[in-house]
Design brief:
The protein is an alpha+beta fold. The chain contains 23 helices and 15 strands. Among the domains are: about 90 residues, 2-Layer Sandwich (Alpha-Beta Plaits); about 70 residues, 2-Layer Sandwich (Alpha-Beta Plaits), CATH 3.30.70.
Length: about 675
């Protein structure tokens, strides 16, 4: 239940053994390997080559997948990871043609894309030419020549009689040949002498004349269309052939390339270690971190290699030691909370066990619905066995779901108030030992007291952790000037409050818990704690006057009494979120059962509203409950004793993304 003790190793390996040795360590997932000196400048070309091969293999697989039939894609998605025997895995990796196969697939896909682009360019050109198919002459005849200009286009006459347009063209010395008509559009060839071009073009510009854009073509319209159609036919045939080749390569190379990509992804760390570490002509040097409990196992592996030597060494001064959390199985899911915040530093306490119970309780109170807890527990347990990569997080939610069931049971939350509509309200009412916070004042006050009480315990527990951890590290000043004084102030203040009528008027208790005489006794530890904070909380200040001023601020405002009061009150949000979950559930039931009197359709509406309404309520309040529970740990609890900011232990791991290897 702590930060694992680590050992630093110095490794010297003959290059004949290095790669095999690193791969053997990788399969243990228990060693963090680093180059001996990161300051040594070495060539990164081999690593760059590995990354390039990795990129090519991934791109080739994406291409093969993109050409698959839709039904095959669905089938592949359902099948999950590829299962392969280790002997076949090793045999595939001996195939040195996989890089060339990836290149071939990429080249074929590039050619297919180029052909598709050409087809896409040619089709609009054919459509463009077909518009002017009424023109039978050579396109080269059009345009401005030495003495005359010939223009092909169409005129939209609209409501104007086209004969009037023809007459105007003649008046402006423009010869016209009509080619065809479509409604009010007339396709024409216009010709005029260049000596009269200014007058002719001025008149033409006033018409609805659109000139054909054929400058990029030569020959007749018909010849160009035939050429383009012939090209498109060739492009389509060639592309079909290429797609057939790619589909053929899928059967041959999909499995080997998947294995190869998995290998490259999995071995990139080894490639970096091999080529970025300090080495001589024949020997490579590395440093490694292992857990103390793994020492014998790792040393036994090292002894399998004749040309590998190892020595335990001390960390360098100021070196950042990696942090590996080592907790009991029950606590491991809560390492997710610590990892999100930042793992502890190597010599810092691991807060995982302390977080676990409080996190689960707070999450349960934020939902406070046993029905939701049952559904959540079942779903997370099922998915935890299917989604190994998310198992920790899912088990965290599963434990929170168990506490949700208990919280829901004691506060009468079963899919809102659904049992009351089903005639079973009396049975579940008897289970609600703390009352119903939605329908009774007693239940809501019990919820308020529970949330506030847990908050007080949580915060003071953090102070005790700080006190005892400081003693463990022999940091006496922090223990007796920062931790203990606040314990001496807060606990007596709470006892004094609970022994007064003020607590009764605030409905915190029904009657004073302690006799009022304790106030006279407990005032002394409060005074002693206050004096310690005033004089020593700012002990690093040289001026005594400024030290006392800062100490007074620390007692009252800056992380002082007002800050602790705010921390305590933050926990009332547990009640607020629990009531929101219950309130929405009650509203969903009320709306749903309004339809029960409608024959047939009413029952359908009832079921639909209940199912989707409660699914929505579960989803939105799981998110709210998880985030707020995190906040209580990070903002109210951790600042009392925890800093974090360590460097996580990153083992050289044998992790397969795309395949599952079986022996």
């Amino acid at each position: 239940m702590a930060v694992a003790r680590l050992i630093k190793l110095f490794i010297a390996s003959h290059k004949s053994d290095t790669e095999a040795f690193l791969k053997r360590l990788q399969r243990t997932s228990a060693v963090e390997v680093k180059p001996y000196s990161e300051k040594i400048e070495t060539s990164t070309l081999p690593v760059d080559a590995a990354r390039e091969n990795q990129s090519k293999a991934r791109k080739a697989l994406d291409i093969l997948y993109s050409y698959k039939d839709k039904e095959l894609k669905k089938l592949a998605a359902k099948a999950g990871r590829m299962v392969i025997k280790r002997s076949e895995y090793e045999q595939i990796l001996k195939d040195h043609e996989l890089d060339q196969a990836a290149d071939s697939i990429i080249d074929l896909d590039n050619e297919a894309a180029s052909l598709a682009h050409r087809i896409g360019e040619s089709t609009p050109k054919i459509n463009q030419l077909k518009v002017w198919s009424c023109y039978r002459h050579d396109i080269a005849d059009l345009g401005k020549k030495e003495k005359y200009t010939i223009r092909l286009g169409h005129i939209r006459s609209g409501r104007t009689d086209f004969r009037e347009i023809l007459e105007g063209l003649r008046d402006n010395l423009v010869s016209t040949q009509q080619l065809s008509e479509e409604g009010d559009i007339t396709y024409v060839v216009l010709a005029y002498h260049n000596d009269h071009s200014e007058k002719a073009e001025e008149y033409i510009s006033g018409l609805a004349f659109e000139e054909a854009e054929l400058a990029s073509f030569t020959g007749t319209i018909e010849e160009n269309i035939k050429t383009l159609e012939k090209n498109i036919s060739y492009y389509q045939d060639r592309r079909t052939k290429i797609i057939g080749e790619i589909e053929g390569l899928t059967n041959k190379y999909e499995k080997p390339l998947t294995v190869y990509l998995d290998y490259l992804d999995n071995n990139l760390e080894i490639e970096e270690a091999l080529h970025l570490g300090y080495s001589t002509d024949s020997v490579s040097f590395y440093t490694a971190w292992i857990r103390q409990k793994d020492r014998d196992r790792i040393f036994a592996i090292i002894n399998e290699f004749s040309f590998v030597r190892i020595e335990e060494i001390e960390p360098e001064e100021g070196e950042s030691i990696p942090v590996a959390l080592d907790n009991k199985p029950f606590f491991r899911p809560f390492e997710v909370v610590i990892n999100l915040y930042g793992v502890p530093r190597y010599f810092e306490i691991d807060p995982t066990p302390f977080v676990s119970l409080f996190f689960a309780m707070f999450f349960g109170l934020c939902l406070t619905d046993a029905g939701y807890g049952v559904i959540l527990a079942v779903l997370t347990l099922i998915f935890a066995f299917r989604m190994k990569s998310a198992k920790k997080f899912l088990m965290l939610i599963f434990i929170g779901a168990i506490f949700t069931i208990f919280a829901g049971a004691i506060f009468n939350g079963w899919f809102g108030d659904l049992p009351s509509y089903l005639g079973m309200g009396g049975f579940f009412d008897r289970l609600a030992i703390l009352g119903d916070p939605v329908n009774s004042d007693e239940g809501s006050m019990n919820f308020f007291r529970l949330a506030l009480g847990l908050g007080v315990i949580h915060v003071i527990f953090g102070l005790f952790i700080k006190f005892f951890d400081s003693i463990r590290k022999k940091d006496w000043q922090v223990a007796f000037f920062d931790g203990l004084p606040w314990i001496m102030i807060l606990i007596p203040l709470i006892v004094i409050l609970l022994s007064s009528e003020m607590a009764v008027s605030m409905q915190l208790v029904s009657a004073p818990i302690f006799p009022s005489s304790v106030s006279g006794i407990l005032i002394w530890p409060i005074i002693a704690g206050a004096i310690a904070i005033i004089f020593f909380s700012a002990r690093h200040e040289k001026s005594w006057g400024f030290r006392i001023f800062m100490g007074f601020l620390n007692l009252t405002i800056v992380n002082g009494l007002t800050s602790f009061l705010g921390d305590f009150l933050s926990y009332i949000r547990l009640m607020a979120l629990g009531l929101v979950t219950a309130g929405i559930g009650v509203a969903i039931n009320s709306i749903a059962f309004q339809f029960v009197s409608i024959p047939v359709a009413g029952i359908v509406m009832l079921v639909v509203i209940l199912i989707f309404g409660h699914i929505f309520n579960i989803g939105i309040n799981i998110l709210g409950g998880f985030v707020h529970t995190l906040r209580l740990q990070y903002v109210e609890f951790f600042p009392k004793f925890y800093t974090g900011g360590g460097r996580p232990f990153k083992a050289l791991a044998d992790e397969h993304k795309y395949i599952t290897i079986v022996d």
